[in-house]
Amino acid sequence: MITWRRVEERDFPLLGRWLAQPHVARWWNHETSPEAVERDFGPAARGEEPSEDLLVLLDGRPLGLVQRCRLADYPRYAAELSGVVEVPGGAMSIDYLIGEPELTGRGLGPAMIRAVVAATWADHPGATAVVVPVVAANRASWRALEKAGLRRVGEGELEPDNPVDDPAHYVYRIDRPLTP
Fold it and tell me: Where is the N-acetyltransferase domain (predicted)?
């Protein structure tokens, strides 16, 4: 069973360990020192930033991280994304990782994404869509989005998180389901 809770400061050592894992470090490109993890995740954990950092659990065991935000709360990011695809008012975005290497390649990424997207409609009644850019070279990531039900709606150049990556990105989207 996949559940989650907000990241707390007590989770920072775990996040630092995950960010140092080669399969995560390749795409996330974060510093992993305790100071850097506190700097990058502390504001959201303390409620000082509008994004949500969610520690995802599989049967109570830490599995990964999902960052969720309203794109309107990050206007520069939304503007950059709008240069590639239409970004509807009320759109949200997610970023995600599976931290434990032995849990990768088992279909848990799509399950995690599907669960958080489904919860987004309840947690954020004003959310109209979830729009997710992903580096085109990160096949595992965009395949997880596809398996979770998101569809590719565009491709273009965006600033990559990791400077070694090409700016080519695919953009995926899922809209809020219509209620009968």
Answer: 2-177
What pLDDT does residue 94 have?
98
Quick: pLDDT tens for 122-165: 999 999 999 999 999 999 999 999 999 999 999 999 998 888 89
Q: Given this model, what pLDDT does residue 48 score?
A: 96
What is the number of helices (H) and of strands (E) in the chain?
Answer: 6, 7
User: Which run of H or of E encompasses 150?
Assistant: none
> To 10 degrees, the CA torsion angle through 24, 27, 31, 37?
-60
Are 142 and 170 spatial neighbours (Cβ–Cβ below 8 Å)?
Answer: yes
pTM above 0.85, yes or no: yes
In the chain, what are the domains?
A: 2-175 (3.40.630.30)
Token code pair at residue 70:
């309203």
- CA dist 22 and 27 (Å) reads 9
